[in-house]
Amino acid sequence: MEYRQLGRSGLRVSELSFGAGTFGGSGPLFSHWGTSEGAEARRIIDICIAHGVNLFDTADVYSDGASETVLGEAIKGRRDKVLLSTKLALPMGDGPNDYGTSRHRLTAGTEASLKRLGTDHIDVLQLHGFDASTPVEEVMKSLDQLVRSGKVRYVGVSNFAAWQIMKSLAVSDRYGLERYVANQAYYSLIGRDYEWDLMPLAECEGLGGLIWSPLGWGRLTGKIRRGTPLPETSRLHNTADFGPPVDEDRLYDIVDAMQVIADETGRSIPQIALNWLLQRPTVSSVIIGARTEKQLLDNLGAVGWSLTSDQMARLNEVSDLVPPYPHFAYRNQQGFAKLNPPAV
């Protein structure tokens, strides 16, 4: 396991991190992700630590707080060996102040997460989404105070547009406040939108990518193939509508190409998908999840080796998309490309 800087910070995180969305599963979405708790959850953490994973990610909204609680119990006695990341913003109740990123919500939400996690500090606190109703100045000053209090070490975002991140960073710079160092974003071979704006912003402003759903919402496991029905055991039967949309023909083309490379390397298709991400710019850590030890061990096998430049090129080509405006001109027209060469 290698360790990478989290953006423009001094914090070093493992190239693979573990997403605890499979812990304590309940509700219409998370019950289908996984229901690990107690000894099973602790065993998963044991395996991760033994393989060098040091970052564990969760959110207050995952199973209505149960994920944080189970994770906190699973790391008892070894808090000094792990980094904890959690997220706030999405609704945790029906009250008018039970959602968002106001000073009230951030302060109360952080205290609640600390209690559930059984710790006195959160290593990386991320905003789960952009709250358009709260002034950015209030958000950044509130996060800065949480860092100054010692309850939070670093701050980041998730599911923000590039302009929303840049506006926040501008406020931080103007007032000398804590800056975002992480962006937890969706990125995979079948979801490359991260590359248009978020990746160049990350390179310019020093945000480390923490990549969620690297297997394309469960579609890059190798179990979904052209001309075959969705496996009965697939969680997509119940969760597809919650995740990013995909073009099925494009998905099948990508999986076919991955199978060829899997045969060449002796690696699994999920390992191919994860290794591709580990070689992409701005990626600090790829968040893996697993319902079973077998899945976890297979995912952990994505490190310690690298796809060749030829294999990377083939995956890039089969998964490529026409960039949206205004990006297509900088790729397709020589004059524009001279002004601003494509980053990838």
Task: Tell me about this structure.
Helix 2 (38-50) crosses helix 3 (66-74) and helix 9 packs across helix 10. The protein is an alpha/beta fold and 344 residues long. The protein has one domain (3-246, 268-308): NADP-dependent oxidoreductase domain (TIM Barrel), CATH 3.20.20.100. The mean pLDDT is 92. The protein has helices at 27-33, 38-50, 66-74, 103-117, 136-148, 162-175, 198-205, 236-239, 248-265, 269-278, 293-300, 309-319, 327-332, 334-339; strands at 3-5, 12-14, 16-19, 55-57, 83-88, 122-127, 152-158, 180-186, 208-212, 283-288.
Helical proportion, percent range? 40-55%
Strand arrangement across the biggest beta sheet? 3-4-5-6-7-8-9-10
Major β-sheet profile: 8 strands, parallel, barrel
CATH architecture: Alpha-Beta Barrel
Mind telling me the CATH class? Answer: Alpha Beta
The secondary-structure element order is EEEHHEHEHEHEHEHEHHHEHHHH
Gap between N and C termini, in Å? 25 Å
Strand tally: 10
CATH superfamily: NADP-dependent oxidoreductase domain
* Structural domain count: 1
Radius of gyration: 20 Å
Unreliable parts: none
Keywords:
single chain; 344 residues; alpha/beta; TIM Barrel; eight-stranded parallel barrel; two-stranded antiparallel sheet; 10 strands; 15% strand
Task: Describe the structure in brief.
The chain has helices spanning 27-33, 38-50, 66-74, 103-117, 136-148, 162-175, 198-205, 236-239, 248-265, 269-278, 293-300, 309-319, 327-332, 334-339, and strands spanning 3-5, 12-14, 16-19, 55-57, 83-88, 122-127, 152-158, 180-186, 208-212, 283-288. The protein has 344 residues and is α/β, with parallel strands linked by helices. The longest helix is centred in the C-terminal third of the chain and has 18 residues, at 248-265.
